[in-house]
# Entry
Amino acid sequence: MFNFAAPNARMNQNAEEKIKQAALRVFIQKGSANCSSREIAREAGMNVALVNYYFRSKSKLFALIFETVMQDFLKSMVQVFSSDLPIREKIKILIEREFEFLGQHPDIPNFVLNELARNPEAMQGILPVLNMVNESGVFDEARKLQERGDMRQMDIVQITLLIMSNCQYPFMAQPLMKVIHGVSNETYKEHLTAHKTHAVNMVLGYLFPNDQL
# Structure
């Protein structure tokens, strides 16, 4: 597709994106409270005036970055949960997409948890997307399957913990696991690829025990 935007507009978009990518790297490394706009500007190879020009303040830039990171994944969840696929297939796709997302952004879980511990209000900006997950009907679908005995009786909090612990913890524990087992980055990535299959089989096998009969 051709881009007929004026050169200045294209330059502005490129500069904004470069600043956002630099800010994400700095926020992940130091947290929002322990870095400055000047450090973000240095990481982006720009002066601090440009960072403030495009985003007004570090706090506004952080809010934008945090919401973007969360929405990118949650919107993928909405797309899966709103489909006509059986819930078993939805969960399988969700796990596979989470591994794909975290494979590209392995520092995101720690980043999100650290920032929520500092500022629980950071979730306010993504509540509309969370509501879309609730409105997808997937929770009602799960309850009906549980009532019929086709799905293990677990509340949604426990199901969420089951999926998150099998998907996110392996990425969060990467530094520890590499030391314990003396493996390289590449070797650990191979283990993560294998674990994706194990996670799918374990979660689905536990939630739908009748399928194993």
Summary: The chain has a mean pLDDT of 88. The chain has two domains: 1-56, 66-212.
